[in-house]
Specification:
Cofactor (chains A, B, C, D): Mg(2+)
Shape of chain A: elongated
CATH class of the largest domain in chain A: Alpha Beta
Structural class of chain A: alpha/beta
Number of domains of chain A: 2
Number of helices of chain A: 13
Pfam families (chains A, B, C, D): PFK (PF00365)
Distance between the termini of chain A: 59 Å
Oligomer: homotetramer
Main location (chains A, B, C, D): cytoplasm
GO biological process, one term (chains A, B, C, D): canonical glycolysis
Radius of gyration of chain A: 22 Å
Pathway (chains A, B, C, D): Carbohydrate degradation; glycolysis; D-glyceraldehyde 3-phosphate and glycerone phosphate from D-glucose: step 3/4
Amino acid sequence: MRIGVLTGGGDCPGLNAVIRAVVRKGVQDHDYGFTGFRDGWRGVLEGRAVPLGIPQVRGILPRGGTILGSSRTNPFRERDGVERITGTLEQQGIDALIAIGGEDTLGVAARLAEEHGVRCVGVPKTIDNDLSATDYTFGFDTAVGIATEAIDRLHTTAESHMRVLVVEVMGRHAGWIALHSGLAGGANVILVPEQRFDVDEVCAWVTSRFRASYAPIVVVAEGAMPRDGELVLKDPQTLDAFGHVRLSGVGEWLAKEIEKRTGKEARTTVLGHVQRGGTPSAFDRWLATRFGLHAIDAVREGDYGKMVALRGTDVVRVPLREATASLKTVPMSLYEEAKVFFG
Amino acid sequence: MRIGVLTGGGDCPGLNAVIRAVVRKGVQDHDYGFTGFRDGWRGVLEGRAVPLGIPQVRGILPRGGTILGSSRTNPFRERDGVERITGTLEQQGIDALIAIGGEDTLGVAARLAEEHGVRCVGVPKTIDNDLSATDYTFGFDTAVGIATEAIDRLHTTAESHMRVLVVEVMGRHAGWIALHSGLAGGANVILVPEQRFDVDEVCAWVTSRFRASYAPIVVVAEGAMPRDGELVLKDPQTLDAFGHVRLSGVGEWLAKEIEKRTGKEARTTVLGHVQRGGTPSAFDRWLATRFGLHAIDAVREGDYGKMVALRGTDVVRVPLREATASLKTVPMSLYEEAKVFFG
Amino acid sequence: MRIGVLTGGGDCPGLNAVIRAVVRKGVQDHDYGFTGFRDGWRGVLEGRAVPLGIPQVRGILPRGGTILGSSRTNPFRERDGVERITGTLEQQGIDALIAIGGEDTLGVAARLAEEHGVRCVGVPKTIDNDLSATDYTFGFDTAVGIATEAIDRLHTTAESHMRVLVVEVMGRHAGWIALHSGLAGGANVILVPEQRFDVDEVCAWVTSRFRASYAPIVVVAEGAMPRDGELVLKDPQTLDAFGHVRLSGVGEWLAKEIEKRTGKEARTTVLGHVQRGGTPSAFDRWLATRFGLHAIDAVREGDYGKMVALRGTDVVRVPLREATASLKTVPMSLYEEAKVFFG
Amino acid sequence: MRIGVLTGGGDCPGLNAVIRAVVRKGVQDHDYGFTGFRDGWRGVLEGRAVPLGIPQVRGILPRGGTILGSSRTNPFRERDGVERITGTLEQQGIDALIAIGGEDTLGVAARLAEEHGVRCVGVPKTIDNDLSATDYTFGFDTAVGIATEAIDRLHTTAESHMRVLVVEVMGRHAGWIALHSGLAGGANVILVPEQRFDVDEVCAWVTSRFRASYAPIVVVAEGAMPRDGELVLKDPQTLDAFGHVRLSGVGEWLAKEIEKRTGKEARTTVLGHVQRGGTPSAFDRWLATRFGLHAIDAVREGDYGKMVALRGTDVVRVPLREATASLKTVPMSLYEEAKVFFG
């Protein structure tokens, strides 16, 4: 039995831990052979296969990124995409495919499974933790840890100069990283994409914090947006070509607004790619490893078209289609719970 | 309404985060008053109360330990213990008590609630993660992180000298820290209290690892014990006064046995107290904070005799009595799953 | 004897360690009294003095920032500045002043000492490590450590997507942080303010790195500037009001140029304030502590108008005037030495 | 020109960084060829040579340990040792040898250079920082950082239970790690091998700390010894086969003595091998890299029989013989300076 493995979408600490677990268990317990595809679905499209065995996965557990490379290529948008995919799988003698990725990568796996009978098992990956079918995805805990450590550091510099520090963290559509790191870091305001924010309310929290002789930390998800569209329109640089607010600049924009409205100095730190690189946290290594082991169980049982998922402390399987159907956003009740720490 | 707060048992990163969340929410949302008791139940027995308000909880979120101090005192084993407890509560005008602790501390709370009508809400704390009513307890993730980082470091020194490194981690009755840090750190053998180990089997794994030109890391929980009692008896220093294996020395003992039987150099590192001190991980700060917020919800709803607990991503409540009834040990199926990485 | 203490300029991990050492040694060995001034020279100007004794310095050793606050106020630029300074010192009964700060703060101390007979001892602080009179200043090692850890993380994400990552680090006039973190992090290009860079040469190094199947990391000091002025002029947003390259944006600008010229994806991470906050490294705590102890020695010996400085492993004293006279920049020989790792 | 490279003695973070710098500069700037010898001098004795080029040194900069392996073998104590050494060098066509190691490894290099004309350049390595010819050796800063982080963690657990924590750190003959980590970690007592300690004085410091309502941290170098020999003799287990105090047990022994004499609970943490493994600090990577580059300069200039060394911020060369002649211990003046923080 030969199993293909690929990683797609943005990289995420823990991808290598999944690959290692898959190969270790597959080879040692079941004597499976493995073929790695380079750069996600693009490697399958282009027939770029690499050997994948025990020697290739040695020492990769604590390493961030993915030894297989990644891309966002979607074969359904490529000419003859499906034919090229199935062609490569046949040529390489692939019996089953383990696809590690997010909504897009697994969406392709779901369609290939349903519409073209490709035997796929999915492993969920989203650093934003926004897949509804699983309690957690690996990479998220690492990102939250990095963001929290940065917030810890920013507290002391903010206090020394009594200025506002706005920290922009990842989270385009879901505010999980902002919420968790903001709570863990003792932020005074947390802004998430799930609820448009009112700049005046933010300024009120900021001011109240200063009144208590503390310097405020504002954590804002990159996808958070102000309630009042007009405010944005006044500063055309924050709009993109389509006249939309530039998601990547909300931290910078907000710091300027806070300065303008409160008269207090404000600075921005955009954590950016630092959040997704480097060695995975112990939690993420453990989760990624268990996902990898259970993906092999699914293959062995012939339980295709499924994705492994965490529920409580158990790893379960859910249909791939269902797994990618809806985004898991921060529920308002949870966000409201956090507001006791605002201001 | 005045609420007493105490922390009992071994200290654990996240205790301060609970205290802070309890006070922040209680004061800001409900205008409750708070009284801290020093050193767990001992402070209630002795009437040692300290003021607890917003100023006392500032800046404590990222700090390990507990600002209230801790002890293992059990009032049911003290002369007039219960009378002194209820006397102090009355004297201090305490309407409800939030007890943060493990099996022992919460067991006292359960009896006080059931037998003496004391209005208690429990918050679970065990660095070993061995309370069955909750998926996780705070402090555990921090301990696993510290142990994993140590294992990461030990790999390179083991490889440089091609020697065995035995790492003894916490876990007297449950092997959760050993299992998680061993998996996350890429250990070659993991030994837990739940299954007596065979030294010869350990040596076989060690030898097989050397054959693959790697240096083995053996992670052993402090409570793990060898299968063959006789081996132990030969070395009386590893027995305590009752003739039992000294739990604290299994790492040292095992390293010597490995040296004897395999002829390879073996060294031991006992991580000890480093695992329970210092700043909590982001996960533990988040969990501890949520536990604190929900404990206040329980008080507000008059839902006494309960403990807050994590189930998946939800915080729920379970009866205190039930919560402390059984130890959560590593299931054999989970331990077997990890064995694919042994040797 | 009563000693005033102040911290000026940008905050820096280690300031609190200096304050603690000064107070601990002064009180315990010599029974000195201490008065803290808030926010650097501004607090002296405005007579904002705070008590400073053993209780105030407890637990501050590992904390970043400064418990005294900081500012960039220069009393020589304020109306009646000097009179107000000497007035406050007299009013508070200050016999000597320990000023902890950089070029500006110590420049004021030097003039006050020389021109107005104020008894000053200086402690050097510059996170950029650009004071010529001392081998190292505290804060620098912490900043280099944070930048190096970020570079470590960025390697894996760069490799996964085979893209260029440009990391902008602190260093307005001197490239020490860029040079040290770039060397320690295994960067493929390091750009410093001391030598204008050629964008085509940078692109050649980037391309050569890709040819070796690796993803390049470019570390650029915020004050680094391209050689060819014209390139810059084409994009007016990168110019400030005076037509100069905006120092804070060189990373962003360079990433765009690299994309344009090499056709490779490039991303920027601006580390910003994260570099100057949080707990100091062990080296910085040790250095700051020794500086504090030796500042008290200088006071006790009446050796005013001096600054403590590190030479090798010794703490020595140099005249304040001399200490702030020249900037310590990266010598070209050292920069050339590093180029073996470029490309 | 072909250069042999070996690493000897205990492993140390930064060894790989030296190897990488040596090879990168040698190959790229001078087109040298390299041969690695396995396990220090043992590999030269036994003719175990491995290829060493750019591919072998990729990615090793941040990795602890040594890719070449290490041993404590001394060829002058082996039969025909020198003949076998020179035989291997001739057979492998080695023109010069870069030996990275401590007193023993470099002592061999010195004798081979002086007595047998072997062209050697030394790079100093001692995690204890006890080589007199250089201000610092790589690995030391990493060890101090790890010990300091552990002490930070132990503070909070000590405070929670108001118990003494004794931390045993490396340092057999020199107390540098104890002194630096003790100062950086805010220890209340620091004990070094350079001065025998008085247990009653230690207990007085401990007691004074408790009186100030704090829990004491005692940092003790593994080679520190009590002044009063008799105390030791009462407990035969702390003696080794020669009747000497067992160096590795001083922490455990001291904790028991403190408990006995003060009546306070005391616990020990022995940091052990964790201090020498894992990724090097930024400082150590920088220092190791510079040492490597300068070792190649020495080879190129034919300046053999020398060791590279750090003086202030400069890398210089000193005769190998002189470099290993005397141990650099903590001067009493520096130790006395630290005592202001005791108690």
